[in-house]
Amino acid sequence: MSTIVLGVGERFAAPGWDFGPESVEIQVYSTGMPTGSEWVSQARSARARGDREEARSCYAQAAAKYRQQGDALACAHAVRHIADVWMEETQLARAQPLYEEALNAYRGSYETRILDLANTVRPFALLQEAAGNREQARALWEEARVLYGSLRVEEGVAECEAHLSSLGKLG
């Protein structure tokens, strides 16, 4: 919620760093605008309280901040959580395009963390399964199983295998 303003030629003196007598004090001005991570924190609190509407709103604010900053992966993370909240309310049609947006961002970046991708593929597989799209669900569960397996997340692998088994194909 704050920014650091330095004048021309001024240097930042961090704790433990000694730039000598030319070091300057930092002037901190409150912008009054929550950061993306502050919006995410508010969204998590709202979700924990069961206030899904507030959670979606805060995640949307976070996504807008991240989008404005050009942080596609942080935006994808916030968007995925909006979709998750819609899924909690069984609003598949509202969740689907959000999962697709998050997946496109994650799959389009070399900086994507595998766990973020797996944690987006998983609920999208749940959505496809709930919507009766068995082949799409199966392909997504297989992808999630590989992703979780590569990270040795045994609980994730087991969940994927259980869904694949219920869909009639494991392998």
Question: What would your notes on this structure say?
Answer:
Helix 1 packs antiparallel against helix 2 (52-69) and helix 3 runs antiparallel to helix 4 (92-107). Helices cover 65% and strands 5% of the residues. With 171 residues, it is mostly helical. Residues 1-30 have low confidence and may be disordered. It has a two-stranded antiparallel ribbon with strand order 1-2. The radius of gyration is 21 Å and the shape is globular.
Number of β-strand runs: 2
User: What structural class do the secondary elements suggest?
Assistant: mainly alpha
Largest sheet: 2 strands, antiparallel
Distance between the termini: 49 Å
Query: Please, what is the average pLDDT?
Result: 85
Oligomer: single chain
The number of distinct helices, counting runs of at least 4 residues, comes to 7
The global form is globular
**Which value, in Å, is the CA radius of gyration?**
21 Å
Indicate the topology:
Elements: E1 2-5, E2 27-30, H1 36-48, H2 52-69, H3 72-88, H4 92-107, H5 114-130, H6 134-150, H7 154-166
Antiparallel strand pairs: 1-2
